[in-house]
Amino acid sequence: AIKGGARQDGFAYDGAPVTPGFDAVREAGEALAVELDLSDGRTVSGDCCAVQYSGAGGRDPLFRADRYRPVVGDRVANALEGRDAGEFSTNVAELAAMPGEDGRERLHTAVRYGVSQALLAAAAHAAGETRARTLASHLGTTPATEPVPVFGQSGDDRYANAEKMMIKGVPVLPHGLFNSVEKLGEHGEGLREYVAWLVERASELGPAEYRPRLHLDVYGVIGDVLGAPYDRTEVVDYFQSLAEAAGDHPIQIEGPMDVGGRAEQIHAMTELRDALADAGVDVDLVADEWCNTFDDVQAFVDAGAADVVQVKTPDLGGIQRSGEAVRYCDGTDVRAYLGGTCNETATSARACAHVALATDAFQVLAKPGMGFDEGYMIVENEMRRALARDHADRSTRALAND
Q1: Can you give the pLDDT at residue 198?
Q2: Which one of 164, 168, 183, 312 is the catalytic residue?
Q3: What is the CB neighbour count within 10 angstroms for residue 392?
């Protein structure tokens, strides 16, 4: 609806919704809280939630909590009752194998996402270790020893929120939310001018020697403005102008186009990436649209269709699948950005901080929300708590073994 011309009215949008399941172009997101009672009296939790742009780009339909509450409270609960909380791998495999509702092959991604968060917390509690350490054991990875770089997202308040990020020295910023031609500019001039402003203000507000990575999400609108083919001179020149505006800041553009299908998107992204490489244009491309499931991530990575793939955590379903998707990028020239959506909760964001540490991802999204501060504090502080606890646990074990 936004791409079709729905006009912004403050925080809302005027116009009729287009994506099935929506009653308005912008409406309140919903989550379903899941709690697992363990036999020792401990309760652990996870939150079922889906991405802001549900039902678009090949994703599962809009998540409604009331619709899926009976699924979780009855069918999923009955399947998990009495299981060993420490058997994370077995429990998430059982969850992944459950058939979906209304003839769907699998449970809604939001259901698998929330329940698997609780299962990871249960397994970590049983083992007496951090969730990052438990997930790393499941994946066969070596956890990070420092916080993963956090990517702040500004929402529509792209100036004030970006300045907050700069003052705090956030390593990757600002998302920008360029989801319409009105914001991007009829010839892309709005985005280019914003990049130049970011560089200027970062030098004024940031710590000494501050060079944040600039990450802009354009929701396919560059494709709407410039059109295919994406290897022609006009397109390459535009990306060169973005690189020049960024100066010595690394810059990456997420979702430069949305062409309506996975195969088509991979072709368009590969065409653009190859053209930029041939011309020596130093702008990285980030895959988002049509890169939702683990199979999608594999396809984009195998094709070399992006410099970075967003692992959009709610779209992967089980939280372990997000970890597997990040791990799949190891040994390739594609980096893994553990993303997600503003439409999450503090519970799911904290769980994802452990996924980022378990896999030592390239960057991790500050979430939930688009006010920036809250999401940044939740994710950054959770990583620091987990690292401190893990260090203390290892020190205690070392003393006990002396």
Answers
A1: 98
A2: 312
A3: 10
- Number of Cβ within 10 Å of residue 132's Cβ equals 28
**Average pLDDT over the chain, rounded to whole?**
95
Q: What is the pLDDT of residues 66-78, one digit of tens each?
A: 999 999 999 999 9
Q: How far apart are CA 136 and CA 127, in angstroms?
A: 13
| Position 288 pLDDT exceeds 90 | yes
Selection from 122, 128, 74 nearest residue 98 by Cα: 74
Q: Three-state DSSP class for 345?
A: coil
Q: Would you state the torsion angle of the CA atoms of residues 223, 227, 230, 236, taken in this order, to the nearest 10 degrees? A: -80
Query: Distance between CA 241 and CA 131 in Å, rounded?
Result: 43
Question: Scanning the structure block, which residue is given the tokens 């990052």?
Answer: 132
Q: Residue type for 213, please?
A: R
Residue 153 is given by DSSP the state: -
Mean pLDDT of 26-46: 96
Other CB atoms within a 10 A radius of the CB of residue 323 amount to 29
What pLDDT is recorded for position 58? 73
Task: Provide the β-strand partners of residue 335.
Answer: 308
Q: What single string gives the DSSP state of each residue in 287-300? A: E-TT--SHHHHHHH
**Sign, CA torsion 22/24/29/31:** negative
Annotated catalytic residue 168: no
pLDDT at site 332: 97
Give burial (CB, 10 Å; 0-12/13-18/19+) of 97: exposed
Instruction: State the CB neighbour count (10 A cutoff) for residue 188.
Output: 21
Strands 213-217 and 43-48: unpaired
* Angle formed at CA 311 by CA 67 and CA 270, multiple of 5 degrees: 125
pLDDT at residue 204 greater than cutoff 80: yes
**Helices marked H in 291-336:** 294-303, 313-316, 319-328
Q: Say whether pLDDT at 304 is over 90.
A: yes
How confident is the model at residue 401, as a pLDDT?
A: 76
8 A C-beta contact, residue 20 and residue 61: yes
Give the position of tokens 């990049």. 195
Q: What is the phi/psi pair of residue 127, to 5°? A: -90, -10
